[in-house]
Amino acid sequence: MSFRTPDPLHRLMLDDVRGARKMLSGVARMTAMEGSRHLSSLVGAPVHLKCENLQRTGSFKLRGAYVRIAGLRPEERAAGVVAASAGNHAQGVALASKLLGVHATVFMPVGAPLPKVAATREYGADVRMHGHVVDETLAAAEQYARETGAVFIHPFDHPDIIVGQGTVGLEILEQCPEVRTIVVGIGGGGLAAGIGLAVKSVRPDVKVIGVQAEGAAAYPPSLAAGHPVVVESPVTMADGIKVGRPGDVPFALVQEYVDEVRTVSEDALSSALLLCLERAKLVVEPAGASPVAALLSDPKAFRGPVVAVLSGGNVDPLLLQRILRHGMAAGGRYLSLRLRVTDRPGVLATLLAVLTVADANVLDVSHVRTDPRLGLTEAEVELHLETKGPEHCREVADALRDAGYTVLG
Q: ACT domain: from which residue to which, for each copy (predicted)?
């Protein structure tokens, strides 16, 4: 079964998505839908989380990859497939190929997170490290396809990929038939296009809202121009939606079926990831947390009931550590300060006593005496504190000033 035609912009229909769902039966999980009391209280209406972070391979990508590879002709399968990805698409292609008995070669950039590289290999793919940015890795994969005849599996710019991702939309309508707004992250656009196609074909009254990171937002200018445009050097922690140009196939569908595309800051992404971990007990990568970031940024803008699609949970532990600290700082839960003090015995103990009274938890202390900016009897102390919110941060800083310390920032 395949939805490929010579015209990549052929008209995709609801029946295509339904056919993809039958194909995925027993392959992709029908992932859980979890309610969020905290987000519901902010929005003023029920908010549900569609947990594609709990999908096989840790993201929605398996859906589209499996449908695409399953639709290949026998001679194409015999030639094998090739993909380029820093993570989720790589794992989706690797597992789909293993399940279908097709040899997969996956190019990944040098410096890709080790857990993602290891998982892709464990799913059976031949992993080749090439390039330092995804564009270089993509070029290497396309060159390999030309040289070997392997079929290149694009992460989002193909009809089969889109109808596979659209099965998420069908599940949402079954699990939450009262839904009025669906919020989904957008990179190249495959997931948003598929969900929009599936949902709007059944329930045109449901709003579908896409979310991009501010530093990698190619869709707003593209939609304004009426055609895909390139955002040079996209920058965001959300690698899963860090795409400089929309795909031609998904762009046409996003134009038709997605009501609005919003952007969110890096601080909002960090705070959203932290909220998912603390309140929902769900490990979500930054791209997967982007719909939650949109809800946190403007909660009253969404008509409920709302479903936020958590598209993936493959986050490198080292990155997660940095993001959580960033999220705590953005939420006023983490405070860094530098103080100028007199360098004499007992000063540090006195400082810590002030912090104890202020109920700030000291995580780290650095004591500098040799900086040329300091006077002969001066020292500088850098503090990293765990706090209870923005108001507590102000109280701690005020307590230090009231005790006679010069707070430098």
A: 336-409
- Angle between helical axes of 61-70 and 14-24 (0-180°, round to 10): 90
pLDDT of 343 reads 66
Specify the higher pLDDT residue, 381 or 186: 186
| Residue in 148, 144, 115 with CA at minimum distance from that of residue 128 | 144
Share of the chain above pLDDT 90, in %: 64
384: phi then psi, degrees, rounded to nearest 5: -120, 115
For residue 76, how many other CB atoms are within 10 A of its CB? 16
Give the span between the Cα atoms of 190 and 89, in whole angstroms: 12
- Residue 256 amino acid letter: E
pLDDT in tens, 287-322: 999 999 999 999 999 999 999 999 999 988 888 888
Q: Which amino acid is at 399?
A: A
Catalytic site positions: 61, 311
Tokens 């939805």, residue located: 3
| Beta-sheet strand order (sheet of 406-407) | 361-368, 378-386, 334-342, 406-407
Interatomic CA distance for residues 168 and 187, integer angstroms: 16
A 10 A CB-CB count for 345 gives: 6
Long-range pairs for 318-321 at CB < 8 Å and ≥24 separation? 318/113, 319/113, 319/237, 320/273, 320/283
pLDDT in tens, 236-278: 888 888 888 999 999 999 999 999 999 999 999 999 998 999 8
Between CA 94 and CA 249, with CA 141 as vertex, the angle to 5 degrees is: 80
Give the domains, in start order, of the chain with CATH numbers: 14-60+158-327 (3.40.50.1100), 62-152 (3.40.50.1100), 332-407 (3.30.70.260)
The model carries a pTM of 0.84
| Residues shown for the chain | 409
- Does residue 82 contact residue 104 with C-beta atoms inside 8 Å? yes
**In the sheet where 81-84 sits, what is the strand order?**
126-129, 104-108, 81-84, 151-152
